[in-house]
Structure formats: C-alpha cells, structure tokens
Amino acid sequence: MASLRSQSSVYSLPESLSSSGPASTAQTSVDAAKSAGQSRSYRLSDFYFQRTLGTGSFGRVHLVRSKCNLHFYAIKVLSKERVFNTKQVDHTQNERRLLMAVNHPFVVKLWGAFQDAANLYMIMDYIPGGELFSLLRRSNRFPDPVAKFYAAEVALALNYLHGLDIIYRDLKPENILLNRDGHIKLTDFGFARNCSTHAWTLCGTPDYLAPEIIRNERYGKAVDWWALGVLIFEMLSGLPPFYVPDGNHVARFEKICAGPRAVRWPPQFERRATDMILRLLECDPTRRYGTLQHGAGDVFAHPWFSEVDWDVFRRQHWLIRAPYMPRILSAGDASAFDTYLEDNAEAAYGQPVEDKYGNLFPDFEYTRS
Predict the structure, then answer these.
(1) If one looks up domain 132-319 in CATH, what number appears?
(2) H-only helix segments in the chain
(3) Phi then psi for 105, rounded to 5 degrees?
C-alpha cells in the first residue's frame, strides 16, 4: 500500500555539528555497545536474490537467501553516487555504525555491510510481517489495547537507544516492522545519530517533527518522545495529530509549533490515552515526559500503561501474545509487502565500474562479487 507520506516529504539537510562537537567525539556509548559482536565478511555471491521488498530514492531492499545457511535476509542496496549527491554520506555511515552497535529484541539486527564499486550493501534480519503502517491503514485505526501494545514496545526500544546516547529521529509507522510473532522491530536508522547532548540538524518526517526541530533550535532525545506521542495519536485515530490534507508544510509546521491546542481530539479517545499523548506532545522539551527527573520511567508509570507488565516485555516478550499475528506461510513468504516491478536490478550489482566514492565509506568492507 502506498504511503501517505511520500519520499519527497522526508527532510534531510547536511549533518551539522552539535554542541558536543564532531560525531567522532561522542561515540563512547556506542563503541562500548559493540560487545554485541562484530560482523563477518559477506559478498554478493553468498546470496540468492528472491524479490524486491521496497524501493527508495537511493536504491532498493531485496529479499535474499543465504547460500551458507539457507536463512532469509533483507539486503538494503544504496547507490553510492546517489548517497553522495544528496549529501547523505554521514547519515549512511551512522546507520551502519549504530546498527552494528545495538542488540535489542525490538530493533532490527544488522549482520554485516560491504561495498563494491557502485553500491553499498547492508545485510539485515528479514522481518516478514510487513509495516505497521500497512496494518494501520487496513484497520483504519487501532483499539486502545492494540495501540498500547505497540506503543509499549516502541517505548522500550527508544529507552534502550537513548541509554546508548542514540537519537532515532525517524519514528513513524512505516519504520516499524512486524515479526512473524507479531512483535515489533524498529528499522531504518538513516537519520539516527549518536548524541550525548544536543543536535541541530533538520531531518525526519514532517508529521513527526518536534517543535524544537522546526524552530531550528538545538534538541536532544526529547524529540523521540514527542514522536511517540504522535504515533500513539495516529494509531488511535488513523491520522497524525497535525495532519494537513493538502500537504501544506507551512500550515503543518504552524500547527506543530502551536502544540495540542491545534489538535482536534476524536471523541473515542480514552481519558488516560489523551493524558499520555498530552504529556508527550509538550511543546517545551524540558517539561516533556521522557526527559524529566525520572526519564522514561515517567512514561512507563503513566496510568495508560497500568496494565503493561514491563518486566515481562523487557525479559520475556515472547510470552506475550501480540494482538495481530501476520499470516506467514513459509520462511521466505513476502506477501505482506507490496509487489514491485522486478527489472533484474541485481544483474548490475558487482559490475566493474569506476569507483569515485569508495573512500567515503570506510566502515563498509570492500569485497568482490
């Protein structure tokens, strides 16, 4: 199903230095997290290409099968030339480095990354249940307990990332995948960055941008908690709180900066859900839930989450039955994803061409096909 938020609606400007200095000085937490394991070497010839799972402005994502263990994976292929021309080199480097550092049940796992003369390749878990976005559009909106289930898992994932000084910066239903057991996996870390203090860059999806980003102020982890409030609202109502039908960005940003007073609250919202959203959609980031004295503990302790057993979610989430179980017929079933024109794109991968950009991506191992 086509997204209401088109490719052109995603904003990204070249990464600027935050008040903490260059990104290389703020890597302590991420480097320490690399105990999760280093990647092994991969190459194109290790995989059978099955079909396309998604396309974007930089390339596409393929479903592949390993010739070694016959498991299915997703390979994200990015054109180095397109990444360079759109000034996404730093974001792409960050995505690889951060995904290799994280290890959490609600975050997609990156197994390795490599490059050839023309492209970058990232090998990730294949998550067969599709996007939460697709499920939400089919359902129109979620009942309160269903929205609460997904919000709880997202909150745990964000809290884990923040503990590593990682700001996610691109929370939205399209970036939440459903595993075969119905539990979530956050994906697409293209806008994530390591940041122990503040950042300045304008990036993210317009409907989910926090006011401080729009006002071009320095910001921190609070922007992810704002985005969680937007997500909860969208799950419960079917549309984001600051949605503008004609896609007028100026009008949308004015509504976001006005905060909750610009929101039309659907009558079906449960009182505690409304209060949870209001505390996350606080325009002043210093007063926003998730950033106060108790940090994420304020979110976890909110009455809307009173039925949630956080210890079980953290330690034994597989014991909790998800509200929706994807229909997966086989290990490589990709029926939850849209069908794309298969133009034999993989035939062009690994071809001997001039490499103008290889030195820009030192974290991607250079391999032959």
Answers:
(1) 1.10.510.10
(2) 28-32, 80-85, 89-101, 132-139, 144-163, 211-214, 222-237, 249-258, 271-280, 297-300, 310-315
(3) -65, -20
pLDDT at 36: 42
pTM of the predicted protein model: 0.88
Q: At what angle do helices 222-237 and 144-163 cross, to 10 degrees?
A: 170
Token pair belonging to 130: 């599709």
For 93-124, the pLDDT digits (tens) are 999 999 999 999 999 999 999 999 999 999 99
From the list 170, 188, 207, 224, the catalytic residue is 170
* 8 pLDDT higher than 80: no
Query: What SS3 state is found at 358?
Result: helix
Q: Residue 108 and residue 154: Cα distance in Å, rounded?
A: 12
Contact predicate 243/159, CB 8 Å: no
CB 241 within 8 A of CB 307: no
Domain extents in the chain:
35-128+329-357, 132-319
Q: Tens digits of per-residue pLDDT, 243-271? A: 999 889 999 999 999 999 999 999 999 99
3-state secondary structure of 315: helix
Active site residue 170: yes
How far is Cα 186 from Cα 197, in angstroms, rounded to an integer?
A: 23
Please tell me the distance from the alpha carbon of residue 168 to that of residue 159, in angstroms, as a whole number: 10
- The pLDDT, as a whole number, for residue 367 is 78
- d(Cα 301, Cα 303) in Å, to the nearest integer? 6
For 251, half-sphere exposure in the C-beta direction (CA atoms, 13 angstrom radius) is: 8
> What tokens appear for 25 in the block?
């000085």
Q: What phi and psi values does residue 86 have, to the nearest 5 degrees?
A: -100, 15
Whether 68 contacts 120, CB under 8 Å: no
Supply 242's token pair.
């600051």
Query: Residues 132, 150: contact at Cβ < 8 Å?
Result: yes
Is pLDDT larger for residue 32 or for residue 227? 227
For residues 56 and 10, give the distance between their C-alpha atoms in angstroms, rounded to a whole number.
11
Q: Which amino acid is at 34?
A: K
Q: Going by DSSP bridges, is the β-strand pair 110-115/176-178 parallel, antiparallel, or unpaired? A: unpaired
260, containing H or E segment: none
The CATH homologous superfamily to which domain 35-128+329-357 belongs is: Phosphorylase Kinase; domain 1 (3.30.200.20)
Tokens of 166: 């990682």
Known binding-site residue numbers for ATP: 76
